[in-house]
Design goal:
alpha+beta
Length: 585
């Protein structure tokens, strides 16, 4: 058994090298006639300069064996080229950097594929970056499945991904990234990750297909047609997942902590985490993802640009940073044409049109002056405008908008992620909300007491996976005591959003309105907020108003510890010394 394991590892290392080693990867792609951008692997600065004289600027630099695009970037001139190349050679553990023709502006498409030792291959999920090539996929807004590909393009890239995984002799999961010319069927392979990547976590949560678990079973010798689908319990891992919804991922960038940092996004990843949302339409999924970020943003409207001229807004469109989606919305408000926005950003017109739909809905809300008809309420809730935003745009209170909505009978309903687009019954489904369904697909079971555990949302500076660890273990503890457990979270990178951790998983933004929709359906006997960090703690007061009992430390005691002034009063009363200080605004 030991000798077999060693042989398997040796094969795995050799095949992985074909994907991770830049020169081997290029040779492998040329062997199977898969197009790659004109490139050369260099090991010295002079070697790089000699090659770039042949192909000209701009060029992309990709160091071998680094994660998150570390050491890479786009160089537009010799000065930038030398700086990035020297850093890339230093960070690459084999001293290799691939210098290639820059195809920035092409569409970036990813395929998450799976293969077993028998050679059976499937596509788990395909994803499309809203940003064109040039932004690291970890820093880009990503939609699954792809929205702007025709069937010919989809099948062409799918076939290519399956050819590549077969040639590399991958056993398990693999991520293939493509650049697609938006004006033709020309494409090239950007890179292959012969391992679980950041995109694998997103693909797993977007489809309900547990990529890491299936890959581990393949490593042990199972084939895809022997591994049961854990959600349906009827189909097998050899069935490709089918999606009847849209998933949007938005990166959690740390610029709220690093105010003076460079906001520009390149091939080097800057995000600390990400959020994912699910809805029946792209607009709704985008709106849910925006408010999941917890960066004081709940729509595409921003006061940042109101005093700018049209010329200043157009100039900002050319800057590739985390704010560009808000700039696009502002440009649309000012009547700047799709063509002009596309020419500058190279973001597909389909996405620009969807952003326009949200701007139109925003305008209708403002023009209603608070006199919102039932049809308009249905329309704006379908694209996930939260009550808070509607109230702000109409001058009414959030309470008034919520009551108006309830009077109209416009409430969230919950649909399930079942991997098969409802072709088979799901045994362990998880749920997402939408406003364009008339029925709930949640299985009701009131035989047990219910506990709701609120997750911690996206990973950010100062917060890692410790809150998620606590959330998961508290869920298991309640389950052992006979409670039905409900988890609410929106981070695709966490264990709490695995579909088999709690009895029910709601993949939703952690806001008072979104949580209230779940409370109205489930009527939990209690909620746990102490394991979700600040995200969950902030919802304590709202949960109490909903009539949900907070388990563990009382809300007022949590408040006494968290609120600086209340805490100061306690220290004063008990005579405990502390450093002199005061709160400033």
């Amino acid at each position: 058994e030991i000798s077999c394991s060693l042989v398997g590892s040796e094969m795995c290392i050799r095949d992985s090298k074909k994907a991770e080693d830049r020169l081997e990867f290029k040779k492998t792609m040329e062997k199977i006639h898969e197009p790659v951008a004109p490139s050369e692997v260099v090991t010295t600065v002079q070697g790089g300069l000699n090659f770039v004289k042949k192909i000209g600027y701009p060029v992309v630099l990709r160091p071998a064996y680094t994660l998150g695009g570390s050491g890479g970037g786009i160089a537009n001139n010799e000065e930038e080229f030398k700086e990035i190349l020297m850093n890339g050679l230093r960070l690459s553990r084999v001293g290799q950097v691939l210098v290639e023709r820059c195809i920035a502006g092409w569409k970036e498409i990813e395929y998450e594929v799976m293969r077993d030792a028998n050679g059976t291959c499937i596509t788990v999920c395909n994803m499309e970056n809203l940003d064109p090539v040039g932004v690291h996929t970890g820093d880009s807004i990503v939609v699954a499945p792809s929205q702007t590909l025709g069937d010919k393009e989809y099948q062409m890239l799918r076939s290519s991904a399956l050819n590549i995984i077969s040639e590399l002799n991958i056993k398990g999961g693999c991520n293939v990234q493509f650049a697609l010319n938006p004006n033709s069927f020309e494409y090239c392979v950007i890179e292959v990750n012969p391992r679980v990547s950041r995109s694998s976590a997103l693909a797993s949560k977007a489809t309900g297909y547990p990529i890491a678990k299936v890959s581990a079973k393949i490593a042990l010798g199972y084939n895809l047609d022997e591994i049961k689908n854990a959600i349906t319990k009827k189909t097998y891992a050899s069935f490709e997942p089918a999606l009847d919804y849209v998933v949007v991922k938005i990166p959690r960038l740390p610029f709220d902590k690093f105010i003076a940092a460079d906001h520009d996004l390149t091939t080097q990843m800057k995000a600390t985490g990400e959020v994912m949302s699910i809805c029946t339409n792209f607009e709704g999924a985008l709106m849910k993802a925006l408010r999941s970020l917890e960066q004081h943003v709940d729509s595409l409207w921003s006061s940042r640009y109101k005093d700018m001229t049209d010329e200043e807004v157009i100039k900002l469109l050319g800057r590739v940073d985390d704010r560009r989606i808000y700039v696009i919305a502002e440009a649309i408000r000012r009547g700047i044409s799709y063509d002009q926005i596309y020419d500058i950003t190279k973001i597909d017109r389909w996405f620009i049109d969807k952003i326009h739909n949200l701007v139109k809905a925003e305008r209708k809300i403002i023009e209603s002056k608070g006199d919102i008809s039932k049809d308009l309420m249905k329309e704006i809730k379908r694209v996930e405008f939260p009550d808070k935003v509607i109230a702000r745009l109409t001058g009414k209170t959030e309470k008034e908008i919520r009551q108006m909505r309830y009077d109209y009978g416009v409430t969230a309903h919950f649909k399930m992620v079942d991997t098969c687009a409802a072709e088979f019954d799901a045994m362990t489904p998880y749920y997402y909300s939408c406003f364009d369904s008339l029925e709930n697909e949640v299985a009701e079971d009131n035989s047990k007491k219910k506990v709701m555990v609120l997750g911690s949302g996206p990973i950010r500076i100062g917060q890692g996976i410790e809150f998620d660890y606590c959330s998961v273990h508290s869920t298991w503890a309640f389950e052992r005591k006979g409670y039905e457990t409900i988890i609410v979270n929106n981070n695709p990178e966490t264990v709490s959003t695995d579909f088999d951790i709690a009895n029910k998983l709601y993949f939703e933004p952690l806001t008072a309105e979104d949580v209230e929709a779940i409370v109205n359906l489930e009527h939990p006997d209690g909620a746990v907020v102490q394991f979700g960090g600040q995200t969950a703690i902030k919802l304590t007061e709202a949960l109490m108003k909903m009539g949900v009992k907070i388990l563990g430390t009382k809300a007022e005691d949590v408040d006494a510890a968290e609120d600086r002034e209340l805490f100061d009063e306690i220290l004063q009363k008990t005579g405990i010394p502390r450093a002199a200080g005061g709160t400033v605004f």
